[in-house]
Amino acid sequence: MSADQNQSVRDSWPLYEIFVRGKRGLNHVHVGSLRAADDRMALTNARDLYTRRNEGVSIWAVRSDDIAASAPDEKDPFFAPSGDKVYRHPTFYEIPADVPHI
Q1: Ramachandran bin of 93, using left for φ above 0, alpha for ψ from -120 to 50, beta for the remaining angles
Q2: 65-93 pLDDT, tens per residue?
Q3: What are the φ/ψ torsions at residue 78 (nearest 5 degrees)?
Q4: 20: number of Cβ within 10 Å
Q5: What is the pLDDT, as a whole number, of residue 23?
Q6: Is residue 40 over pLDDT 90?
Q7: DSSP labels for 19-74?
Q8: 3 close to 46: Cβ distance less than 8 angstroms
Q9: Does the predicted model carry a pTM greater than 0.70?
Q10: pLDDT value at position 81?
Q11: Nearest Cα to Cα of residue 61 among 95, 101, 2, 13
Q12: Which residues lie across from 61 on neighbouring strands?
């Protein structure tokens, strides 16, 4: 593939964000990004690229265009409203030791 063809692929294929859930836990973790022609190709390429040593049990491939995220520079004004709602923080009761993942 020539350099011009590579650039054409980069410009035309959507960018996917890849999340992998490892055997050790319940949460998916962002592991990287890749470009693919469609969802199936994104999953296949993500499997080949990010789970080569059997470290994953589940993969999410999400088009970057579909992710809505807050901006880092909005941190203070965006999260400030929750600061005065102390009832949202688990400080008023003890969590039993046998309750997992809290």
Answers
A1: beta
A2: 999 988 888 777 776 766 566 666 666 67
A3: -70, -40
A4: 19
A5: 74
A6: yes
A7: EEE-TT-SSEEEEEEEE-SSHHHHHHHHHHHH-TTS--SEEEEEEGGG-----GGG
A8: no
A9: no
A10: 63
A11: 13
A12: 18
CA–CA distance, 42 with 19 (Å, rounded to integer)? 11
Residue holding tokens 């055997």?
A: 23
pLDDT over threshold 90, residue 99: no
Residue pair 33/45 in contact (Cβ under 8 Å)? The answer is no
Provide CB contacts within 8 A for 51, sequence distance 6+.
20, 59
Indicate the CATH number of 3-68 among 3.40.50.150, 3.40.50.2000, 3.10.20.520, 3.40.50.300: 3.10.20.520
- In whole angstroms, what is the distance from residue 52 CA to residue 30 CA? 16
